[in-house]
Each structure stands twice: as C-alpha cells, then as structure tokens.
Amino acid sequence: MRRFQSVCATALALGLLAGTSAAVSAQSAPPSELSTYVTGIRVGSEDVQWADPVIDAAGVTHFQGNRIVQTIEWSDPRLPSTMILDGNTDVYGDVATLTGSAVFTGTILLQDDEGSWTGTQVGYWPPDAMLMTMVTLEGQGAYDGLSAILSQSYADAQAQQDDVPSWKGVIVEGALPPYPDAVPEPVTE
Fold first, then answer.
1. 93-144: per-residue pLDDT in tens?
2. Do the domain assignments include residue 133?
3. Which CATH number belongs to the domain containing residue 150 in this structure?
4. Is residue 15 part of a domain?
C-alpha cells in the first residue's frame, strides 16, 4: 500500500509540475521580469524603544509594545529605506546575558512618498547569538500589486554593528500564494 501511495504522490507531483510549466510558459513576461532578488544593509537605527519587561510565573520575560526604526539600504529602489518595526518579544532565559532564546512577532512598515509596504514578521535568536527574521510584505501606492518575502540573519553579535548585508529576499509581481485552508493531517501507519 505504501508503494502505491508513493507512486501516486510522484505522479501527482509530476503532473502539477507539467501544469505549472505550461502556465509559466503561457505568461507574457519572462520569469526574470516577474521576480527580483533583493538584499539590504542596515545603515542606521534611529530609534529603539523597548517596553518595560514583565516576568511571568514561569520565568519568561515579556516585552510587549517595542518599536524600532531603522534605515536599510536596499538593492532595489522599490523598497523604501525607512523601516518601522512594532513588535512583541518573549525571552526564555536570562535577559542580561541572552542565555536561552527569544522569539518575536510584529508588524513592519516601509514607507516613502511613493507608497508603502506593510506586513508581518516572526523571528528568533537562540543561545548561539544567531538572529533570524522572516517578513512578508504587500505593496501599496506605487508598489501596489507587488509582494515581498525577506529574511534577516546575523551570524554573530558583531555583524549587527557592521554595515554588512543582512537582509535578502525576493519581490514578486502579484500576491503571495494563499495559505492552505487546513493544517495537514498527521501521517499514521
């Protein structure tokens, strides 16, 4: 039975790929014009406001209502340089020494005179001082009809201070694909 399921899954995947390639070839613009790889370098943090910490009964430190305003130098001029991040952070471990880990969620706004990008972020940093953020954005104004997925990563704390590329991602024409309606069912034997 498992072999049959595997064969069906492979046939379905190949069929989907064939249909996808036919749909892609039917589009009027080549794929390179429909998506653009982008990078960004943080060149300044103008304003960093951390909320007062609240420690719960389990020892988790909550920072609710943080705001960070940064200047990012993007490789693509469609992404405005001013980035406003509003978010919440939970720290699991000692806040002073960053032992343990932290997770954060928030909203992001990139805005200039031409339009804006809005979206959400989710991220973490574990004990090895690696920061990782994933961002999804939707364009408005001059950027209407565009979407972006960006990630930010710092290998160490020193990289956070240097003018090094830490953002990378893609801008695509159109909306991001919708999420599935339901969470997949667990696989059982």
1. 887 776 778 899 999 999 999 999 999 999 887 765 567 789 999 999 999 9
2. yes
3. 2.40.350.10
4. no
Q: Is residue 21 part of a domain?
A: no
The answer to whether residue 1 sits within a structural domain is no
Q: Facing residues of 169 across strands? A: 38, 150
pLDDT at 188 over 60: yes
- Residue 95 is predicted with a pLDDT of 76
How far apart CA 46 and CA 38 sit, in angstroms, is 23
Place of tokens 């973490």: 124
Share of the chain above pLDDT 90, in %: 48
Contacts of 58 by beta carbon, 8 Å cutoff, 6+ apart: none
Between vectors from CA 132 to CA 127 and to CA 137, what angle results, nearest 5°?
A: 155
Q: Is the pLDDT of residue 68 over 70?
A: yes
| String of DSSP letters for 109-146 | EEE-SSEEEEEEEEEEE-TT--EEEEEEEEEEETTTTE
How many angstroms separate the Cα of 34 from the Cα of each of 27, 74, 137, 145, 163?
10, 18, 16, 11, 29
Look up residue 30 and give its two tokens: 């080549």
